[in-house]
Amino acid sequence: MWHWAERTIARHMPPDRVSAVVGDLAEDYDEQLQLRGRIRAVVWLIRETRSLSRPYARARFDEAGGRIMLRDELTHVWRALTVRPWVPIACASLLALAIGLFTAMFSVIDSLVLRPVPFDGAERLIEQTFARAEPDVLAAWKASGLFDAVEAASPFQTTFESVHGRSVVGARVTPGMFSMLGVEPEIGRTFPPHAPHEEVVLSENVWRALFGGDPTLLGRRIRLNGETAQVVGIMPSTFRFPTPATSVWRPLDLNSSQRITTIYGRTKPGVSWAEVAGRLEAIATHHAYIPRNYRGVPPIGAAASATLSEHTRQATGVLMAGVTLVFLVLSANVVVLLLSRLVQRRLEFATCAALGASRARLLRQVILEHTAIAAAGMVASLGVAHVLNAFLPSHFIRQTLNVVDLDERALVAAVIASFACVLLAGLVPAWAGTGPAPASALRRAHASGRTSFSRLTTQGLLVSQIALATALLMASTLLVRSFVNLMAADRGLDVRGVHRVRITNADAAFPSVTERAGAEAILREEVDRWPEVAASALSREIPPLPASGGEAHVEDLEGYRVSPEFFSIYGITILGGQLFQSESDTDEIIVSERLAGVAFPAGQAIGGVFRWPGMRPRRVIGIAREITLPALDPAFDKPEFYLPMGATSRTLYLNLRCREACPPAETMQQRIRRLHPALSATVVQPGELPFATQLELPSAIAQVSATFGIVALLTASCGLYSVLTFIARRRSREFGIRQMLGASPRHIRQLVLRQGALVVACGTLIGIIGGWIVSRSLSAFLYGVVLLDPLTWTAPLALLAAASVVAMWLPCRTAAYANPVMLVREE
Amino acid sequence: MSQTTGLGELEVLLLLAVLQLVEQGDDAYGSAIKREVERRTGRATPRGSIYVTLDRLAAKHLLASTEGRGSAIRGGRPKRLFTVTPAGLKAVKSSVGVLARMQRGLEKILGST
Q: At B14, is the pLDDT very low, low, confident or very high (cuts 50, 70, 90)?
């Protein structure tokens, strides 16, 4: 260390001072050593050495006219960048896109998979879901001594009747939930212990979107799901719990709720997962109600990725790989452009070297130029990343409790990688092009061909760009095709033109089964009188996918309780047998053709007795056409059965086909509330249907991958265009001589075309192999597409070929039709 | 201050520190001067600034330096001992005098220093 200190001081100070100064330092170092120990003394020594050398270095720099030199160099850099601005602008834009894309995508993955949920002690949060509220289980969790806090939550759909019947996702939570998670309201308060049932806390999003941020809302009463509730607090928009869509909270009373409930506990520090899992299993077995047809959900950690579906988890990996490939394509293009630019400037460098510029000076200039380009790209990338972040597919945002914001680590990593690319692209050719012998450098600069190093590097990078673009295009074509197949698949029913109205709170309005049955009959008569309605049907669930936990819920099957008109409204064909004659819950059942095949393999389903775990035996009276649920997960599509309506459920759906247009939501709401003021009616939006959420992931992957594929294609085409233009320009003297010797424009065109075609062919071949490997890893996201699908293989290749022809056309034309005399004279 | 005497604040402090050390019969060399300034002003001064300023004062002939003896703890390296030249003494007197004149009449505000 002393050696370093002495050498550093000697480098900057006048030689006759060094000995005395180092002696002073040694004296003080000894004192530091005795007072503060070796490590701190060494740190002190480094600091003091730097403090000593810095002012002397600055003084020497000023003496040598360094400031003037630096100003001159910066001026030179500015001129070099602005004299031909298109390449620097293109490079900075490509870098901005590369860094922005990478940062935005990584930020999503960070929020979804890597970052813990934004609550106190998130890594110690554990949750377990039960089929209904379980006060005994909650008490047992608290008494177990494993947790320092235990609370419960139960999601529910909330309809704001005072705001045009707008429906949002809400949750009932036990009053201590907010303090357990360590969150504070933006305005007002959360629930006190034993909070009254009618209190409600809203999210800032709902407060602003539905109530215009009205400051007087706090303390006011609003109507929710047919009840009156008092707003007591507004939570920040970043707080989303227990699901990412939740934006309304009401107090949960476990003793009176029968809904699906999740219990959350934060373990004490030092308690092991194995210990918790074992104890909780024992508690669930002893205290919880486990229905016969319900497998139960084991406890899981509430970390960010714990609640992600397997498909979403895989999708994040695929998209990260995709964005990395796009990043490589864009970076390679930047390198190609910068290399071409530097090779073009070889004459300039050689002239500077011949006039006395040192190699270090020229290298410094190149580094400054490229640093300026990279810095511009970095600044622009912040804007690109913010814009991309705003347009992220909602599927990803709805999967996480974290806020999806820009991740600084990703930004820094992408910026460092880009800087490295840009500096390497400048340093290597600048070193090679600024040799110590100016005369030979000038001679080489005048020669028409490029150096083999720059030619091979440029063409190699171009081949890799085209290969990556081909692979990305193939993958994105597969994913887009898969999404199109999912959307276009025959589902066995026709939901177009059917309007669904959810009627809730019937149990409050009509407590007994008999009353409810009577009310439903009156409702049907009322709806039949509506002039706009052509046909109507009642049901307890709505197709094509009933919400799990419905009245007709049976493991491995989809069940619907329906009125006889249900089948004609949805166009579900009855293939054999008959419809229900009565709406009372008899022992009759209609099964789908697939279920009939499973339950009655020998045939003769009609008239047979249908037996299934979790159901009482029923007599099959009809076979309905199968409803197909196209989804990435084949297990999602289950066979169906239909039962008579009965009058046992709290929720009722009104399915309507209207003549021209259905009545507005408010009108329907008013008409239904005329039957009983406590009834709540909400028009079900298509996006709310569970099936619609199944399409979100394929849609998101298709959107993102198509964007990647198009960006890669455009970038590769631009790279091809710039390289061929450059080749045509560099060989212009050769082309001029060839033309003077009798070569036709066609011949010249072929020369340029051959060079471009060779690069495209090599890139495409490698890309096809890469695309095959990538496609195989995408099999989990494909629906109705085989890997050897002809369209998937021909469409990207045709697209690439078309883009290549466009990119090559102009350079070929420039080379072929230039005036040979002018070309030779120019050189 | 600099307009009247041509000395900056650190230059005045260093000249005064050298005078103090010499007056106490101690060696006035780089480290000792730094310690003296820091002890009396109560603020840390970068080592580089001290040495550059000492060199500048020597170049202005306000300080003179001689080579002192080395010691084992210094690895035998000599000390560079400073003394204030008559020109230096005149300059520091002038600077202190300017300060005193500027302070006159402000005793109520500044208090006795």
A: very high
d(CA A200, CA A475): 47
The pLDDT, as a whole number, for residue A79 is 85
User: What are the structure tokens assigned to A593, written together?
Assistant: 């053709």
Q: What distance in Å separates the CA atoms of residue A60 and residue A54, rounded to the nearest whole number?
A: 10
DSSP string across A214-243: -GGGTT-EEEETTEEEEEEEEE-TT---SS
C-alpha neighbours within 13 Å on the C-beta side of residue A236: 12
Residue A640 burial class via C-beta count within 10 angstroms: exposed 0-12, middle 13-18, buried 19 and up:
buried
- pLDDT bin (cut points 50, 70, 90) of residue A688 is low
The angle that helices A359-390 and A66-83 make with each other, rounded to 10 degrees, is 60
> Measured between alpha carbons, how far is A573 from A626 in angstroms, rounded to an integer?
9
Residues A262, A242 contacting (CB under 8 angstroms): yes
Q: What are the φ and ψ backbone dihedral angles of A597, each rounded to 5 degrees?
A: -65, -35
Interface test with B, best of A27, A34, A49, A61 (most B CBs within 10 A): A27
Q: How far is A51 from chain B (nearest CA, A)?
A: 5
**Beta-carbon contacts below 8 Å between A and B:** 61
d(CA A521, CA A392): 47
Q: Is B77 on the interface with A (CB under 8 A)?
A: yes
pLDDT (average), residues A113-117: 74
Could you read off the pLDDT of A603-651 as tens digits, one per residue? 788 888 888 877 788 889 999 998 887 777 777 788 888 888 876 666 7
Interface check B48 vs A, CB under 8 A: yes
- DSSP code string of A535-578: EEEEESS-TT-PPTT-TT-BTTBEEEEE-TTHHHHHT--EEEE-
Among candidate residues A635, A262, A672, A710, the one with its CA nearest the CA of residue A472: A710
**8 Å CB contact of A17 and B80:** yes
Q: Is A54 helix (H, G, I), strand (E, B) or coil?
A: helix
Q: How far is A378 from A411, CA to CA, in rounded Å? A: 9
To the nearest whole Å, the CA of B54 is away from the closest chain A CA by: 11
**Hunting for tokens 């740190």 — which residue is that?**
A43
> How many CB atoms are located within 10 Å of the residue A670 CB?
12
Q: Quote the CA–CA distance of A405 and A788 in Å, as a whole number.
A: 39
The helix (H) or strand (E) run that includes residue A453 is: helix A452-488
- Both tokens of B66, joined, read 């001689």
Give exposure, B61-92, as e/b (b: 16+ Cβ within 10 Å).
Answer: ebbebeebebeeebeebbbbbbebbeebeebb
How far is it, in rounded angstroms, from Cα A592 to Cα A629?
A: 13
Residues sharing a CB contact under 8 Å with residue A251, sequence separation 6 or more, in sequence order? A172, A173, A174, A175, A191, A195, A196, A197, A199
